[in-house]
Fold these 2 entries.
Entry 1:
Amino acid sequence: MTLPILGWQGLVVLVVFGVSLLIATYSTYAERVIAAFLQDRVGPDRAGPFGLLQPLADAVKLFTKEEFFPAGANRALFVFGPCLAMVTALMSSAVIPFGNVLQFGETAIHLQGIEINVGMLYVFGMVSLGVYGIMIGGWASNNKFSLLGAIRAASQNISYEIAMGLALIAVLMISNTLSLREITFQQTSEAPFVWNDIFNWNVMKQPLGFIIFIVCAFAETNRTPFDLPECETELIGGYHTEYSSMKMGLYLFAEYINVFVASAVMSVLYFGGFNFPFQAELRNWLVSSQGLELVTAQNIITILGVVGLFTKIFSFIFFFMWVRWTLPRFRYDQLMRLGWTILIPLAIFNIMLTGGLITFGVIK
Amino acid sequence: MESLSKRAKVLEKKPMTLAERAYLPAIFQGLTITMRHFFRAATKKQVTVRYPDETRPFSPVFRGLHVLKRDEAGRERCTACGLCAVACPAEAITMVAGERKKGEENLYREEKYAISYEINMLRCIFCGLCEEACPKAAVYLQADKMAPPRFERDEFIYGKDRLVEPVTPDNRSKRGIQLTPEQADKLRSQLA
């Protein structure tokens, strides 16, 4: 990699970083508006047009709040917890391919923070590390409710990571690669028919795996109906009970970034990533009818692909919020029973089913 | 055990079917319900009243904040007879009577007037008995104003400065408690 290319990739990383933060910021706003609409209310509409400046007002509020340390808390770990949660949440978005290659003469810019051939493992590792932020924060608070929340978070994440990994294995059996970029390219279709485009998406080959994966994604991001680590009715807020000011804000931010990353991973793994229907036709049309060069046409397709991927991501984020304001919280034993006795056997069955289908050549 | 009312229903606790145990059908049912509400809130007119910007319409017979009226010439009507204070079941009204001096005929209609007139809005129950008792048609409960919330208790004791109607007619309450004939007809038809 030459130096200018490194510079461009650094820029991409910065943009991904900024976009993650921006999406997390406006997720708080979206959450409140969607919650309000689902409950026949109005939602925030005071700060700016349609309340669009509400996240800024919230940020100012969080920054000016008192920095509080509970008695007997381990100060260093108390600060370290939210930082770790935030860092791991942000780091997991690095390997997600947000778009194809932008070609400007000799320079080719990959719209992806960094391409590594074990991308999916990296995401899994980061997500697993994310629970340490919650654990450390909950333990360092010296508060029984925080500790309970932290313990719940740990056991819940470990339980659901198994089912999630098993659901993922079925995808990897089809794709034979861990690279998210490769998985995306395998879902590209050049056939001139829209249904082919969509049927090439992994969700068509792995419907059961997708359902298992999305349920586990809800549990991994600690969202309702699996938000037992927070659980404001029983645990007053769980692991962030004792947190105030921007440390609290970091936890909330980390949760929304996790939702964003989970949505992005699901879009890439199951919904074709930056592929969108009719892309091959559109590129051919741009070249043949509009007289554009192939490189320019491909760049346009790439940019549209980024738009397409973000449409998918936003749909998933909306779905996360929609479910949150529809379903009540699971009880803890129900959560564990669902994870261990339903999802894990289902995921193993899905692996065997996929293996059988691959053996008999139904899917490849 | 013998049922007293004979209305008790025996409910069987059936084991859940496979569809019920799979959660997903019930979840999708719930999701469609909330989505219907989402579109209703997004498209139809919302029931929320954005309070400081808009207020709910008051009933024409609403009894709100008191006003001490002036007559046609802009003189205070109150003669400090004290009947309102006597009529008040909450004992919210106090007043000090004074004699009108020479040259004050354009300020007070009667020879006796209220030097101070105070209503404690925390005591007041807005029953309107003061209004009924007043022989000079001086005190009215406005139909379109309420005593606003305040931080201090003493701010709720309204003196003459806040009770007496302003001299300029523009600032006066647009609707007193007295109904116009049209309003009265409308109200009668509503009640019928």
Entry 2:
Amino acid sequence: MKKALSSIGNYFKDFGIAFVKGDVWVKVSAVLMGVGYIARKQVINGIIMFLVEALFAVLCVGYAAPNLAKFGTLGTVQFEQVFDPLTMTSTINDYDNSFLILLNSIIALFLILVFVIFWIANMKAVYRLQVRQENKEHINSFAEDMRALFNEKFHITLLTLPTIGVILMNILPILVLVAVAFTNYDQQHMPPSALFTWVGWSNFKNLFTSSVTVTFGYSFKKVLVWTLEWAVLATFTTYIGGILLAKFINNKKTKLPKMWRTLFIIAIAVPQFVTLLLVRNFFADSGIVNTFCNSIGFTDFLKNVGLVPANLSYIPFLTNPGWAKVMIVIINIWVGIPYQMLIATGVLMNIPEDQIESARIDGANPLQIFIKITMPYMLFVTGPSLITDFVKNINNFNVIYLLTQDVFVTSDQLLANSNAKEVDLLVTWLFRLTNEYYNYKMASVIGIIVFIICAAFTLVTFTRTIKGDKEEEFQ
Amino acid sequence: MKKTISSILRHLVLLLLAVVWLIPILWLFVTSFSGYKGINTSHFFPETWTLDNYAQLFFWSDSIVQYNRWFMNTLVIAIFTCLISTILVLMVSYTMSKLRFPGRKQLMSFSIILNMFPGVLSMIAIYFILKTFNLTNSHIGMIIVYSAGAGLGFLICKGFMDTISVSLSEAARLEGASEAKIFFRIIIPLSKPIIVYTVISSFLIPWGDFVFAKLMLNSGIATDWTVAIGLFNMLGKSMIAKYFSVFCAGGVVISVPISILFLIMQKFYVEGITGGSVKG
């Protein structure tokens, strides 16, 4: 942390030095960016800088300014369509599209930030040139500068394209998501026909209040609790199951371990959406499993025990909240164990054999060896991935959505009021809020909450991963 | 004697487990040959066997089943996705592994954190951004969605490149090779296994992805869809009675190539998850 602060401090200190100690050319460069280069005979660099600056000016006037001017209100001119019966055409007024204003403003702010960084870098570079000239050092020609991009500055060449992609696909969407959470963007405020505007923290307040009309607070609590329960259950059942299965198959007494492993892997090699949609029909109310359970009398047995409501003639595998939750976890075990088995197999092969051997000589039984040696080793190696799995399960969209969409209908009116279901995770709730109910503002708020939860867990993993970073070891 | 019994028992348990794991797959396979179009709820195996479902997939396209189109769509998307992703991943991993420049560690930490942010969350925003550029319901849009952020997934590939001895590139540098030349002539040829992994895993994304495709390709025009969306659509409430066995056939057809690729890839999978620490 301290290191990060000091490096930020140095960043601005260098800039200050460049500005104060720079000669007249450097100072003029603050306004006319290319001057410093041309003064040191780097004409092409200078011209490029001028062009960049001109382009930025054009962008500011033509793109950033008109959008940022409306950023405070997100537009005021309502969409209007006037039909002219004489010419049989309708004219549309010059309306404001709130979303476009929002998006363009964010892009504009981003571009301005990038330009400022670029400008600071430019000042430093120009000052460096001045110092080189004063010290009578060699000043690169343009061709040499270009060649540097494939040598000592190769990282810039390589990282430019990936960075642009990441900004477009990862950073920009997150910024938009955060912004939308503070607006009233929903079905009643859909651009282009309607405007939306800033509403401050009210969506966040909504998420934590329960009243007769707003039930988001009630639903949020339920969904959050189930999300965490699910993530814990899903992670641990598959993790432990995977280790046990791997141990079982890797045992010396098991013949043809490769064949057994492949059998289990086949189950996950089929795309998940195919197997999940299939399994969902397998366990449908009038599905084949129900027919089977009925014919052997299992359904009646469950009725007598009270696990199935008496008025049903089938087992509500995926339609009753309690049953559905249990089934989802079980089906997830089916999906997840082969993956974990693969990982566990790889790790188990590396357990130092001598430790187990000496424990056995000391008279430890297999269970003791498992708990005292195998598990600690496994946890040491796969600990970070366990937390990553946990985060992934919080966002395990596929399993929940594909198993319950169109099948599970909630009977809880309070949940239904906020478009949630008992079996929803925060992400599936979010997805349905946007995809079916166009409630973007609440979806964004939920998105931010999930992000915070995930980030907290991620940071834990992350410090561990970085600490264990052995990248220099092999080099 | 006791030994044989325990051995038989052990293999019986394994057999039982394997059956549990394979029953749905078996059901998928046999139902794809069923003469009855809907879900057969009383028998596991179909009563009448036929190849019609496969014929319907490939030769009898109607407004619901456009399997050839879906397959081609997904294939095109997958090929471009895997090309772009692989290039981006290689660029980033080489930079992070072999080049040293100020801010490298910070950049790496930042990317790792960013990569853990689940894409599902920001997909509404992605949708609107692409819509602004008129890229929803287009395959270019899908390719962008799948590949643009690929650079963040560099960790596995970087881990592999870390194991390539630095003395090789050092020697090349002494001979006067540029960094670019080292990258293309030395590192890339030596990274073949990990390139295979990257190619396959990014190629598989469009075949398995459901969420983004559903969100982006929402026009309802069947010829635009990918296989996943097309198959999902067959199981809608009004369709399932007529198309369930066709869905199964479609599932089998898509599973065969994907399973093979997956089996090739899986040996790298472990190393990826444990971040190479398996090497111990």
